[in-house]
Design a protein that fits this description.
By secondary structure, the protein is α+β, with helices and mostly antiparallel strands. It has eight helices and eight strands; from the N terminus they run ββββαααααββαββαα.
């Protein structure tokens, strides 16, 4: 007899397995799932575990793809459409390279924006200009109208700096403030943080005398 593998807590694209359901009429195991769109559904274990043609959502994903194929808004080549698609991928697709920084740490997308690009554009068209990027005002909150804005890359980088806290001279502060007080560029501090430098070495002045900066 094949041993049943407990799928509770596992994610399959948009589906989070929440509990065991009764077997189907053929005695095959089924699982209760919560879709990212908020809908609950029951899926056969075999369908969840199929890699290519498995069940990936409650049906909303298939509806969205069908809607995209017949979409008439004429904006599929607009930069904002690419921004919307990228936002969804980072937050909903656990195979996306940046998922761990977004969906993996609880950053989600509001249901209205998950439903369609039209909804996203209706909320965010105002303030858009070529070259701007989509920025979350609170980096620990998700994507929804009251937490998003269009900004240039400098403003977005500053927002990230303001969200990152470091200790300088015994005081806890964000990277922007620490950069001003220490005289070390904020970009340099963030680079060092991302490469695992200890806080005690974050504020060493870079040596630009004919050799690259090194951690000592």
């Amino acid at each position: 007899m094949t041993r049943l593998i407990d799928l509770t807590g596992l994610r399959f694209t948009r589906l989070l397995v929440t509990h065991r359901e009764a077997n189907d009429g053929q005695g095959k195991p089924r699982w209760g799932c919560l879709c990212d769109c908020g809908t609950r559904t029951v899926v056969a274990a075999a369908d969840l575990k199929k890699k290519s043609r498995g069940t990936k959502s409650c049906g909303c994903l298939a509806r969205e793809r069908a809607a995209e194929r017949r979409r008439t808004h004429g904006m599929t080549k607009h930069p904002a459409y690419a921004v919307w698609r990228s936002m969804l991928a980072r937050c909903l697709n656990d195979e996306h390279y940046a998922f761990h920084n977004y969906g993996g740490r609880g950053i989600g997308v509001c249901r209205r924006w998950r439903q369609s690009f039209d909804n996203f554009w209706a909320d965010m068209e105002a303030g858009y200009a070529p070259g701007l990027t989509l920025d979350r005002i609170d980096n620990n909150a998700g994507y929804h109208p009251s937490n998003c804005r269009w900004t240039d890359r400098i403003t977005q980088a500053t927002n990230r700096r303001d969200a990152r806290l470091v200790t300088y001279n015994g005081k806890r502060m964000n990277v922007s403030v620490a950069a001003r007080e220490s005289g070390v560029n904020a970009t340099t501090i963030l680079y060092r943080i991302s490469h695992g430098w200890p806080e005690s070495k974050l504020f060493i002045k870079p040596d630009f005398k004919n050799r690259p900066e090194k951690q000592s």
